Amino acid sequence: MYNGHQSFRKILFGFAFSPKLNINLLETIRIAHFFNAKLILLHVGEKTKKKENEINALLQEIDTEGLPIDIQWKEGKPIKTIRKACDEFKIDLLILGALQHENMYRFYVGSIARKLTRQVSCSVLLLIRPSEIRVACNHLVVNGLNAPDTANTIANAFYVANTLGAKQITIVEEILNKEIHVDVEDHRSLKKAYIIKERLKNREESRVRKIVGALPKIYTQSIKIRNQSIFGKRGYSIGHYAEVVRADLLVMNAPSKSTIFDRIFPHDIEYILSDLPTDLLIIRN
Asked: Which residues form the UspA domain (predicted)?
């Protein structure tokens, strides 16, 4: 059932003074313009005249006309400080400049990103492919998991797709291999496994079609919609798929709050965060 989507009216960008600050800032401001949002720039660390001059100089080089921008400086531990700032400013979307496969500047990736995605009360966008010249966001891949938050995530994926002008959304239903319950030992068992797979695919696709069918036509009429069922390990499978089809944005349910069990056995989101295939939007209901 369609219960509406979130609107990203307040965006917070947590930034560090890394080599990619300029391009991450440019991409963030571009996104804020698309969503007609107020932008808060937050640096966790000491405020110095040098840092202040640097961020102001960067902002002067970027078109910020009509965009409300507020720069905040807070000292403390990154995770706790960012989490409190998201609550304090009632943030709808937290943007972090994630760096893929880099060793020196990993301030907002790795364990920090994993903890933030679990602890903040808003949605999170991890940028790994910011560009000085806008690269059109044409194809979104979104999870179609059989989970309570999935309908909300899919609704928000269509909201984002329409806002950014995307042309296609692929909804991926990851099905665990253990659901087949057949040991393939001969031709007969192979045929049985195939039949069960088809039934599972039809079941999942029917469930997702109902979710999409409940959305307002204005959100779906101009977008090509595709369903894709994948058998495999959740998180790893959809991340690999997004990479193979060269998706511009991967949209996922937010992970649950961290427990001791989660620290021992990785969740689906852990596989994606460990090797981001593309920009990742995590929707918090």
From this structure: 51-126
